[in-house]
Write a structure and sequence with these properties.
about 200 residues; alpha+beta; 9 helices; elongated
Length: about 200
């Protein structure tokens, strides 16, 4: 068990559906297309409104452009425990707060809503959909902070880095997963989605 991340780009609205069963039925009628239905949108939008924008929960989507087979974009983000540790480290790197501290502080400090990576830090750790609008913002965050994140993961003198990494393997693993998320959001920014499940 753990967090699987699936990435789509160039999604095109195909047809409106009435829930998961209707989507499955209609997908079976059109086997010649790569169709997807994001059943996780309702959960995402109920708890984190706007994260799935512009995707709709009542729509079946066609993938307009398949990613070449040699480009591995889908990935496993680790066990839920590992992913939450990774995400806490991202929060410490970007804001000097853990995720739990950010969740508490956001009620008193609205400026945190604009903090780097906040749309991922304040999001489900097990199920959800991030649409292209938020993916673009996160792609920019991951690109903008990539050099500093790499230095953070390698700097054994940095007190924050020393506090979260106990060895070189942990440092390398964190940086590798940072790059996976960066690639995922870059692809999804192209009219796509990142699906956590």
């Amino acid at each position: 068990m753990g967090l699987d991340v699936k990435v789509y780009r160039r999604l095109v609205e195909f047809m409106q559906v009435d829930g998961y069963r209707d989507a499955q039925h209609k997908m079976a009628q059109f086997p010649m297309y790569h169709l997807v239905y994001f059943r996780q949108i309702e959960h995402s939008e109920q708890h984190w409104p706007g994260r799935a924008e512009p995707l709709r929960s009542d729509m079946l989507y066609r993938v307009d452009d398949e990613m070449p087979k040699y480009e591995l974009v889908d990935f496993w983000a680790g066990s839920y425990l590992y992913y939450n540790k990774w995400r806490d480290t991202l929060a410490l790197f970007a804001t000097r707060h853990t995720c739990a501290e950010l969740w508490e502080l956001r009620t008193t400090d609205p400026s945190l809503a604009r903090a780097p990576f906040m749309e991922l830090l304040d999001f489900s750790d097990c199920e959800g959909v991030i649409g292209s609008v938020v993916a673009q913002k996160l792609a920019d965050d991951f690109a903008w902070h990539a050099l500093a994140a790499k230095e953070f993961s390698q700097d054994k003198q940095d007190s924050r880095s020393r506090a979260v990494f106990s060895n070189d393997a942990e440092r390398e693993s964190w940086w590798r997963l940072y790059q996976c998320w960066k690639t995922a959001f870059t692809y999804a920014a192209d009219k796509g989605a990142v699906v956590l499940g």
